[in-house]
## 1
Amino acid sequence: MTHDLQLELRTDPRLLASVRALVGEWLAGFGLDEDVEHSVVLAIDEACSNCIRHAYGGSGDCYARLTMRATPEHLEFEISDEGTPCRTDKTERRPLEIPHPDEVKPGGLGIQLMHRVFDEVRFEPGDTRGNRITLKLRRQR
Amino acid sequence: MAVDIRSKTDNGTTVIEVAGTVDLYSAPDLRSSLLDAVPKASDGVVVDLREVSYMDSSGVAVLVEGLRSARSNDTRLVLREPSRPVMKVLELAKLDELFDIEAA
């Protein structure tokens, strides 16, 4: 039996609540700790929000694809779009320190949250255009 | 309704009660209430986060912007009893120590 799931998502921020509900439901079958489950839902939401804001500049009429896949080692998520390519200097993991409020750059926060939640985070160009984000969580924690 | 925001001012302190989810869709509502309240509240703004069931970095960014505005207006911003999902995202972002947090 396979648990893989692939969704076409319209890039409308109103739909993020439904995406979170669905990801949460999909995750429920894997016996994760409740806190981890919440963090994974958050990080997927961040990836989708990022796609809406940056790849599509806030336009609600585009589509992105979310794939959720369970392998023996990992739960894998892939978010792909055909929008504007991410700037690679924005997608690296960077240290989070207790900052001065003037130095907080909330724009990149979502990406840093993804790095904190997942064991592997990869940003790459899509097959023909756009972006592909791959997020992997080890099942044995 | 994704988020419900109620503001009331008493003796110069404005309390903004937030209930529901704060994400990319609803964060602009919180942003306008907060940035509207901060310059007017002579004795600071309290953001009551007890009833927030979900918050992502869009919500965190609004709180940081509120804090900046409070500092530049020489007033204070307090987060009242952040719910578990709010604390979780603040901790993940390592921003929990940036804020003045009023615990339960």
## 2
Amino acid sequence: MTEQPSKADLPLIEGNKSLAQVTADVCAPLERRAGALWWAAFLVSFAFLLLGTAAVTYQMVTGIGTWGLNRGVGWAFDITNFVFWIGIGHAGTLISAILFLFRQRWRNSVNRSAEAMTLFAVTCAGIFPIIHMGRPWLFYWMLPYPNDRGSLWINFRSPLVWDFFAISTYFTISLVFWYVGLIPDLATLRDRFKPGWYRGFLSFFSLGWNGSSRTWHRYESVYLLLAGLATPLVVSVHTVVSTDFAVTLLPGWHTTLLPPYFVTGAIFSGMAMVLTLMLIARKTMHLEDYITSRHIDAMTKLVLATSGLMGLAYLTEIFTAIYSGNAYEYLALQNRLTGSLAWGYWLMVACNVFIPQLFWLSRVRTCVPLVFVICVLVNVGMWFERFVIIVTALERDFLPSSWTDYAPTLVELATLAGSFGLFFTCFLLFCRFLPAIAIAEVKGILGPPAAETGGGS
Amino acid sequence: MLEHEPLSESDQAELELSRRAFLKVAGFSFMGALAAGCQRAPERHAVPPLAQTEGVVPGRSLLYASTCGGCNAGCGILAKVRDGRPIKLEGNPNHPLSLGGMCATGQASILGLYDSQRLQHPLKNGERATWNSVDAEIRTQLDEVRRERKAVRFLSDTITSPTTRQAIADFLASFPNNRPKHVIHDPHSCSAILDAHLQTHGVRALPQYRLERAEVIASFDADFLGTWIAPVAFSVGYQAGRYLQGPLPHLSYHVQFESRLSLTGSKADQRLCVAPGEMGLVMTQLASRVARQAGRDWGGGELPLSSVPAPFLDDLAGRLWTARGRCLVLCGSQDLGEQMVCNFLNHLLGNYDATLDVTHPSYQSQANDRDVQELIAELERGDVGALFVYRSNPAYDLPTPVAASLRNLPLLVSFSPRRDETARLSRYVCPEPHYLESWNDAEAVDGVVSLYQPVLERLGDRLPPGAFRTRSLLETLATWMGRPRLADEQLREYWQTRIYPRSLITISFQQFWDQALHDGFVRIRNQADLMVPGVSTIGLLGFPGHGSLLAVSALFPDRAINQSAIVRPYNPATDIVPIRQARPISANAFTVVLYPKVGMLNGSHAYNPWLQELPDPISKVTWDNYACLSPAAAAALQVRQGDVVRFEGIDDMELPVLIQPGQHDRVVAVALGYGSKLSERFANIGPPWLEARSTVGQNRMVGVNAAPLLVWQENGLRYQRAGIRLVKTGRQHPLACTQQEPIIRQPLPMAGTRQPLPIVRETTLPALLRPVPDRPAEESRDLWPDDHRIPDTTPRWGMAIDLNGCTGCSACVIACQVENNIPVVGKDEVRRHREMHWLRIDRYYSNPVRSPVDGGPRKDTEVNVAHQPMLCQHCGNAPCETVCPVLATVHSDEGLNQQVYNRCVGTRYCANNCPYKVRRFNWFDYAHGDQLHNLVLNPDVTVRSRGVMEKCTFCVQRIQEAKIEARRLGHVLADGDIETACQQSCPTKVIVFGDLNDPRSRAAQLAKSTRAYKVLEELNVQPAVSYLAIVRNRQGEAAT
């Protein structure tokens, strides 16, 4: 790090852009026809989405039996995917809210996409708790809605109910936050488009934005308040998700380590996913000037830091299992490290702890393809982390007579692929129809850095 | 319309309408007729009564005493009839043989009544025919047979019904010039026992074994708790000798010598794994020791050593001698010599007339293998003019391929209710009705006669033409003899002339009959007592130096036999030597041991999906038979579980391997009763979906018929065949095993780790009798407030299960399945660990630290086996209840953990959090498409739909029924008023349900026993089920 000039001295946006150029650059992908690369990516994603839709439809019609679950392993791919996608969503909130409050101005180039990613990830995640039900058409029974069945109510002691509230809150706040941030840019776009359906759509959603300083003032107050509201969610949502496991009595699930472990993991995987998406968007949308090596550098460092935390969590898990003196915990640990899914555990350790250590090298951090590969591997590792936690604990619990192995069916694999299809389809459509970079916020960080130091928002 | 007898889809649709019609009429007329006349035959033309018959309330069940037709053991049952249809069979607690117990086969046999593929009318050449035409043609042909004077043979399995035996004899007597003969063939023949008694006692009889009187039991390959002769009665007796509660606890000493691991072996105090060829030697060695103890002459001279340690045999001989007259030696072998040694042993020990009884013999097995062999020869020679096959399937269960000669018979008539292998070859099939819809009787053991009564009018009698038209054998034979009479008339006549005279009390025949019908059985004077009153001392014929005090045959003048022809002096030196040597065998040569599987037995129940899906009590495999190999043998052959091996030279028979601990290394054990044409129907059982696989194998049947491995020997069928070579085929046939991990794997103790409490507790008798120092109660306090405390005034339902008495027979599993409408899911689903049984029996193997036999290092074949029925524990702090988001599983104020099916959305969170893994999920909409089949459903229990969780309810419907009944009568609910389905059918009565809040209830008292413990107690879920530790009558370690 010493051989380079201090990072703070480098401009956040390269290419010496003028304000008009920024607008033009960001709006350019929306104004021209989609390129071949976009179409290719979109068609692949959409094909996966269709595959997943077919799989889910088949499963809904035929029964959960089309998944590889059994009397012992009641959750596997379904809840793994759910936790995975919820985790992915976390980086968006972290970037948009916490980094905003901490005045990390480099976030301005990436926060829009990160927030969009959050929304899409939470959408993907939200599907799984519904489709994993035996009778998904009755999912609304999870709601505490007034009914005429006497005192029939939901069970507030069940973490699944907490999940329901946590996720719906999270989705709502994320959506509002993202939308409020979009308003000035929607207005910018509105002014650039010829009258038509798209312009009508933009003018409706830009809420009559006129760019007056009072509007800006109100906007910034709301944005700050929302950032404050969203901040606790970064911690709370995954904490609640972790209680799905932590409050049970299954060895390997029943541990107080899970909440911080899950939150760290969520940020870790989210950061890796943001980086992955940024690198794709940067390439396909030609936004190299806006998403610069400085951004990549900052985010890889965050990935590195959280990777270290993950390593600590893994060690703590081993330590507590041994230190607890609980033989069942010890057996669960033994099974996790050496049992039938040990390959998954060690894949997870390799991807989450060892491989990200390469980010200590600045050469690695600046090598975009390598960063991309490592980030993809981190997400593979994080998916396996959830899978290993969920499945190993269920495969081997208390009574050996009930131990069962799990293997996914084609329907489950197709559903997983479909969730990625949904995610990338949404993201690609977002890139086509909405500004992927917050124009107004990026404009705030143009110019010589010296001028920025005093700046609030 | 109905040209074929298995119901096609359109027929079933029609049947649905018929069912309604049937039920409507049944509800009003049958019930009236039956209840009013439950002591009389149902009238032939019942008229629906305008006024409801007194005592019949729709929705309330009536119990009819009858007899189980699952096998020939003749256990007493109570058929539970609801709205005109039987829905469940319960053991008749007053029946002197079964004392309320039933087995899995018996429990499942009710499904046969509602089998839509049962034949509904007679067949001619496989085509539907009418009784009139069939009767006319058969009578014409019989006249021809009489003219041609070719042999007439009636082939059946053991018939315990004296009336039926008489009817067959009468029928055969109408062929005076055709050398008529009734040939009895049991697929699981005990012919050698009868032959041996002919040799030693002069009468071809099966003794009645009285295990309840035996304090020491030495069993040689007799699986008497599982499948041998009358397992329920034997289990009842066995348990009586192993009762550890009360002021006088007693535990018999049971030694099992066997080559494969049987159910009985799994319960033995000492189990010795002996090569099949060595069994005779071991028995002879024991006999020589007992003879020495008795100071009697042993003519056998010096014997070679066997694999059983001599000190062990000395000890056993000593124990037997000490308990002479109170011990029992059993032998399941089909070798005449071995059986004779067994008789010799029992004679030396003074057990005749004490623990086994030939003067009051059992009729549960009357097989005569030599007759069968003769019949086969006659068939091959073409001597037979007419063969009648009743409850027998020679084309399936004989090692000799007889199909060709059967096809060439001038007249082959089958009475089979299904299209089995023989029925497919028969010119005429005259289907019998199910035993629940017909009249019959049974004298399973001398002096106890049971009645079968129809508990519903024959299925189809109220259905439109084309539905069920079956006719019982009694009526069919009477018709062919030109004297058509109803079965009940014949039965009453026989009883009046032959049974009633043996009555013990002087009452009128009508009273006698009414009493028998009401009780389901009647005790009468023994045939022997009738002939020679006061006989008590029996001697042994033919054993030099042991005298011949009195031949039993003298007691049976009606079956007198030419003694001089049969009884020859017995010489141990020559009679035993040929079999006693364990010959050295080449590396890859195995001895095949064929055995009947619990539940499936001889294959006549192969149509029954409940039994097909019942896990084998030892291997826990469903829907298949397989080649059991010991771990060492499998390693030597380099095969793993599920690898297919070929039996060289035996019709290219191929079977998947199952690795069976505790089995002899040179033995490959294969179950009989599989590969039956009756199982072809299961091709499409189970939910159809993308990755589903068929339940049947490549032969389109369930399993493989192992009958070709049977051997005919001089004296009869042998269930062992030496010198079989196994070849690995390289193919796989995955087995559907409900239990993946065979061994109790306790986590390794870490420094400072507290060892978890054992799941199955075992102790030894000496350790149990030792006074236990009072351990200081561990300080433990519950942090969780008791938020659903049950007041002491309301019941807290709970259960106590005595593992010591549990044999693993699985009757409870099927009883639960029948009672609670539990679906069958098919092999592929079981393979995916999605079986639905609410009650399962966990089987654990554990390795004793030292050899229990000689205290030396443990041998590979020495494993301890534990059976543990596992069901919902109805926890006080139920982990399932807190996690359900929609409150679909909640606690009742009587301590029950309830599952609300229609509230369940199916998150499966409860199942994940259940430490006992007793919850079952409806992964698919399980088939309830067969309308006839659905008549067996219990109307008190909801049929669950797809996507909901289910589990044991402690038979909440029975609790409610008993409570309502008590309230109606103004009684207070007494302990024992409620019996869960599993408890009711348990032969050893080890499941006790009751109110734990009532300190006087049996369940509460058992829960306080020193042996009582709770599984996973340390989790503080407060289970309501207590288990009582296994006690083994052996020295040595008391641990786990």
